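Standup notes, structure subgroup. Blocker cleared on the 2-acetamido-2-deoxy-beta-D-glucopyranose input:
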Amino acid sequence: MVFACASAILVLIFTYNRSRIRGVPNAVTQQHLIKESGGTYRIPKGRPPSVNLVVAATSKDDYSWVKHLRVPELVVIPYIADNISAPHHAQKNKGHEAMIYHQYFYDFYDNLPDISILIHSHQQSWHVDELLEQDMIFSLNRLDLREVQQRQFLNMRVTWGNGCSASTINTTRVNEESEVSPEQKEMQEAFRANFNVYEVPEILATPCCSQIAVTRERIRGVPREQYKRHINWLLNTNLPDNISGRTWEHMWQHLFLQKAIDCPIEHKAYCRLYRKSNGVP
Ligand SMILES: *[C@@H]1O[C@H](CO)[C@@H](O)[C@H](O)[C@H]1NC(C)=O
Ligand SMILES: *[C@@H]1O[C@H](CO)[C@@H](O)[C@H](O)[C@H]1NC(C)=O
Ligand SMILES: *[C@@H]1O[C@H](CO)[C@@H](O)[C@H](O)[C@H]1NC(C)=O
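Run returned:
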């Protein structure tokens, strides 16, 4: 009797969990199962990895907050979108941060640190998770660089709400206006043009907002000329700037991991990626 009862409860719990995740595309849940069987988590010893913090800014942005960062071995590299006299700059102020990130990968290809972190210039924004106080100083000071090395490429935002559970991109919806994702109907063409492929994944999913961290190995896993190709696409596309930049929010995970869907299970990714503060009490 007790056994039957316990079994019934288990079945109920199982069914409940199943129904909760049914809204998520199949490939997403399958990926979690693979991730979960990955074994124990380990922090490698050794000196801290070297890090470039690439700040995508325009001339009028104030990114002086970076002086409060306590990340060991950090070198800040501001890239200015609208000033070709700046030491590091985009060829043209077009395609938002995507243009700058590709320019950095191209410029620094032979001179990369262990890890490159690429961010927008704002200290506070909704692009940073609420659990991290939506604050770049708070989150970068807690970022676990070993986890970045482990995963090789990741989106600094962890929550699924924008890009994983909701607002995933369905690339077949080329004729459908979408208010939340106006770039969705352009994604198929953008993906084709950038990667020179005919088959485009049906679903593209990753947490939003294009603030990313990537290792030297992954950057060099892509031929240098390919970054040029992406720069040229951004330079030449007829899409409005705010759309062409946004198409890249959904393509970094393909560029660096060859994955269409990169949505690690939230609570695990969050606890592994953000730890106690680096050298800050
Ligand atoms: C552009 O960059 C140069 C070199 O850093 C600097 O001297 C100049 O003031 C900048 N111009 C603007 C408009 O910020
Ligand atoms: C993508 O959109 C098409 C057209 O609306 C739809 O038929 C298809 O089921 C969608 N794919 C997924 C995985 O939701
Ligand atoms: C993109 O820019 C155009 C014109 O500047 C504006 O009308 C439109 O609302 C913007 N779209 C997004 C998604 O920001």
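Discussed briefly. Residues 41-265 form one domain.
Next: hand off to the docking folks.
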